[in-house]
């Protein structure tokens, strides 16, 4: 809620107080960080890292999952995912889809979204998915779009990076994915 602090412009913010994020059922809100993982041991993050109540029964991983190395340890070996997690004010689920160089595949993102959907089906209140990554279109984009729709219908909005080149994706019709996916979620 930007009040103009630090010489900012009042009202220019992410509108995190919108009804979309209302917590009507008082369930713990979780943001899934689909990135390079999260340093869940970091002093500033350890208290906001999601603890999986279904670990080793229905949904593997104490704090999320590593889709790069296909194991239950989504420790950040790059720093970008931890950076993204550090700006949230709710619990964060670590879903590692990018390696230490910051590269990943559409299949890893599909795995992460399947994990999120399964968590939602089990009752985890995932309200947002942070996607601070992107790339050019590939054959997995239709599957990712369908998964964004599935988790969206369960209450999670997907926030996607528009790219780092400073251009207007709507004007230039760039194929930066997942941000160019047309979805209400």
Sum up the structure in keywords:
two-stranded antiparallel sheet; 185 residues; alpha/beta; five-stranded parallel β-sheet
Describe the structure.
It is a single chain. The chain has 185 residues and is an alpha/beta fold. The chain contains four helices and seven strands, in the order ββαβαββαβαβ. The protein has helices at 80-85, 106-122, 141-153, 169-172, and strands at residues 29-35, 64-66, 91-96, 125-131, 135-136, 157-160, 176-177. Helix 2 (106-122) runs parallel beside helix 3. The mean pLDDT is 88.
Total strands: 7
Mean pLDDT: 88
Q: Helical residue percent?
A: 10-25%
**Individual helix count:** 4
Rg over alpha carbons: 16 Å
| Order of strands in the sheet with most strands | 2-3-1-4-6
Give the low-pLDDT segments. Answer: none
**N-C termini distance:** 22 Å
Largest beta sheet, briefly?
5 strands, parallel
**Oligomeric state as shown:** single chain
**What sort of overall outline do the alpha carbons produce when their principal axes are compared?**
globular
Structural class: alpha/beta
- What string gives the helices and strands in order? EEHEHEEHEHE
Beta content comes to 15-25%
